[in-house]
């Protein structure tokens, strides 16, 4: 599998840094084509996605939760998937929390109610679930973020990728990341929060990756006060494997 970082900013985009979004692709098939999944659709990531693939190459969208910095670009993608010269021939599977199409329709207006199902085939996330997208096997489960939010794993040919979405440290996330070859974990806090935590610090991310038995850690969704160097150093005190810090354009083979 191949992971490409489209953006990591929290909670709003900055110059040259869109919000959360990733392109996850399968190994190439015999004809060279990869299964392509847009993972989280934060503000600014749709343009970055189009640097990598055309829309008719997009196989599915997975959204970890409904906060705008992970989902807002679904609004503009709706228009592109309807009217672009590269639009797909049918609706794109959208694996996302319950109520996502209703939320989109509230912004797009009443005329979109009938059109949205022709653009997105919504597969609601609720509790634990799984789906197949081409050669990729996707599983998800709830994590702790104060709203319905999900971490997920993707497997192909024995290789295992895991993603925290936005989450405080929790047992569910450790189970989701179990034995991951690459664990993509957010670090939206610079300093720990005493109660009602909804994000990781870098130290938390290192501990979550260690508890999961992950082989490699990629830190993402960095708090704006955290430098790349500080995030890596602080996580490394709690995780012995390789650590990368996500920035726009980073590509990682899994």
From TrEMBL:
Xref: Pfam families: Lactamase_B_2 (PF12706)
Regions crossing the membrane: none
Taxonomy, superkingdom: Bacteria
Signal peptide: none
Alphabetized InterPro entries for the sequence: Metallo-B-lactamas, RibonucZ/Hydroxyglut_hydro
UniProt domain Metallo-beta-lactamase: residue ranges: 37-221
Gene3D superfamilies named in the record: Ribonuclease Z/Hydroxyacylglutathione hydrolase-like
Full protein name: MBL fold metallo-hydrolase
